[in-house]
Amino acid sequence: MNIKDQLLGEVCSKAGITHEQASMAIDAAIAFLKTKLPEPIAGQVDAFMGGSGEAPAGGLGGVMGMLGGLFGGKQ
Description:
Elements: H1 3-15, H2 19-36, H3 39-50, H4 60-70
Helix pairs in contact: 1-2, 2-3
């Protein structure tokens, strides 16, 4: 199961919405984030979301940690 499928399950469950609604919401959020991220990172988002959560070559894992700062988390 890839990251997006896992996220779909969580959103459906916690928000009480259909799979289709959750998919549209997640797609919109991903598209928004990709417009706000630097291109090298934005280009890796699809690979990360379609994968198992392991960082692709190039170190997206470290980048995901930095993203915490964008959302008020610690780096």
